[in-house]
Amino acid sequence: FFAFILLANFFGLILDWVGLVSPALHHYLRPFNSDMGTTLALALVVIIVSHIAGMMRKGLIGHWKHFLFNFSGHTIIEKVINVPVGWIHFLGEFSRILSLSIRLFANIFAGVALIMVMQYLGNMIGMGGLGGLVVLPIWFFELLVACIQAFIFSLLSCIYIKESVTLIEGH
Fold this sequence. Notes:
The protein is about 80% helix and about 0% strand. It is mainly α and about 170 residues long. The chain is built from six helices and no strands.
C-alpha cells in the first residue's frame, strides 16, 4: 500500500501544477486519495486482509470466537466480562475502517483545498503572472504530508494485520 498511496499522492501534487496552467481542468483532475471512495476501499481491503490472515492463523472459529463469544478467563467474572469486551472489539473494527479512510482522505483533501485557495489568492494578487509562486511553499509541505500519510497508512495496516494473527493465551 505504501507505494500506491505515495505515488497517488505525488501524482495528485503534479495535477495541482496542471491546475496552475489550466484552472478549468483542476476541478476534474483530483488526486485519487482526495476521494472518500478510494480511501474507504483501501481501508476495507486492509481490514479484510487482516481478518483473512487471522482466520488462516487461528482458524475460522478461533478467530471469530474472540469477537462474538469470548467466554475466556480464569474466573467466572473474567469470563462474563470478556463477552461484552469481545463485542466492543468487534465494533472497534468498524472504527478502524473509518479511521484509516478518513485520516487519509481528510489530509489529502485539505492539502488540495489549501493549494486551490492559495492559487486563487496568488492569482488575485497578480504579481505580473507570478501569483502561482505563492503555492510553492504549500506544495513542498504537501510533499511531506504525502510521504507521512503513506507511511502512517502502511504502518497502521501492518499493525492491524499483526494484531490479527497474534495468538493470545486464554483467548
